[in-house]
Amino acid sequence: MSHTDADVDARTTPGAAGDPADRAVRAFADGEPVLVHDAADRESETDVLYPAETVDHEAVVRLRADAGGLVFVALPAAVADAFELPFRHEAVDHPAVAFDDLAYDARPSFSLTVNHRDTYTGITDRDRARTVRALGRAAADPAGTEFAAEFRSPGHVHLLRAAPGLLADRQGHTELGVALALAAGTGGAVTGAEMLDADTGGALSPADARAYADEHDLVYVEGSALVDRLA
């Protein structure tokens, strides 16, 4: 096989050999999902992540059925600022909004929950896919998007705000996913869900997440590899 043919094969085949971070970027550029484990000393969770603008209802089925965690969309800080999206803990005046006992990080990344205005209840796979895709398009063109005219809140898709400096500031799935999306040349919006284990009641182990990736010919990558490649 020629060098050119090998390059094409590595770009289009998620399971192709090579550096996991580079494979993850190529997979995202092709609209494929990537499994990202953050770190053993952080959440120690693996998220299934997609570039938001590529999501269809079948992707949402995978997120809720195979992953099982919270379906979210993470946005770059500049995009969140353009849409005037607050951190949830700064927008809600209630004594429960306190996170000094948060064990895995200094603060949460949650912002609003939204539905696209063209959805019905917002919770079906097709409704959530519509909302996620629209958020992906909006992130690619924030100046051309009137956010409140297109989305309503509360809704069924949780928005997360990435740290302004991305991986230099914070190394959660929010920042790992947005950095991956930007490196892949997308608008920067990423959707995903945590992989859970129905047998143990906890997070799916990295070994089992890697086995799922191998079974479905998807890229699995450690957060540290993305930090080394993208920070």
Structure notes:
- There is one protein chain.
- By secondary structure, the chain is of the alpha/beta class.
- The chain has one domain: Alpha-Beta Complex (DHBP synthase), CATH 3.90.870.
- The protein is 39% helix and 18% strand.
- The chain has ten helices and seven strands.
- It has helices at 3-12, 20-29, 57-67, 77-82, 88-91, 125-140, 147-150, 173-183, 206-215, 223-230; strands spanning 34-37, 46-51, 72-75, 110-116, 151-161, 190-194, 219-222.
- The protein has a seven-stranded mixed beta sheet with strand order 4-5-3-6-2-1-7, sandwiched between helices.
- The longest helix is centred in the middle third of the chain and has 16 residues, at 125-140.
